[in-house]
UniProtKB/TrEMBL annotation:
It holds the Pfam family DUF7847. Residues 46-305 form the DUF7847 domain. This is DUF7847 domain-containing protein. Signal peptide: none annotated. The keyword Membrane applies.
Amino acid sequence: MQNNYIDFKKERDLGAIISDTFGFIREEYKTIFRLYLKHVGWLLLLLVAASTYYQYQSLKFTGNLSIGNDPGAFFLEMISSAGVGLLLVILSSIAYSALSITTINSIIKSYVKNEGEVKDDEVSQYIGKFFSTTLGSFVVYGLMIFLGIIIAFLVIISIFLLTNNINMALSVIFTIRICLLIIVLIVVYFISPLSLMFCIIVFQEKSFSDAFSECFKLIKENWWITFATLLIITILMWLISSLFQIPIVIMSFMETLTSLQEGSETPGTANLATNWLFMIFYVLATLAQYILGLVTLISVALIYFNLNEFHNKTGTLEDIDRIGS
């Protein structure tokens, strides 16, 4: 066992999970980023390029907002201008998320197995073994959420269209608000257990269906602490990534203010499409956003080990066996 080894297989409270997340990064940042860039770097560059292209097309499109008032033509023009970029962003985001999750979990799996040593060949082997399952699970997970929202939306719209008087309309509006609140609560509830599913796929080597049921077993009696930890880590990463957004916000504000002062018919942000300084800041902010997301993945792994230890006492049993031998 190496010095400064962080034992993943033990119970932790919220503060310990957060501190050990940054402790693990501090001790292993060279290995983490080396393997991350080796396996995910090319896809990260592709995703940033797709995001930058989409941003460029969107900003350029805003310059044509005043050309016509035909909603159909506006929609078609928007799809033709930014649709390809949006599709590239969606596809590359799915692939990047699945590969990043698999890579980070594979690094941690090798670290835990070898008690502080990460072996490159093991990480490569784990990525090849679990990436397809993680990707498929990620797609199914996304489709489940998307279809749930679409179904709820269609039900609400159907009720609204069947309404024939004002009193019922007001009642339906209230019902819509309640339905939207219920949808948000359901999504929030499922975020905590389903965030563990990808860890279970790698650490327990289970299929999607088995991991899906296992994550709800692990979350039992620990939903609030899991949600609180995810919320705090998310807010913390959002605050840090927001620092990289400050130049973008300032430049957008200045361009909009200048446009209003000049009485331009097009939004001021349309000029940002050709502003290379703005695009450079956008690229840097996007890179920071995705790299900071690795912190969340590590904290989720620690949450998994905490819950697994709470229910199964895996680390405790291994320590007893080690002492007995």
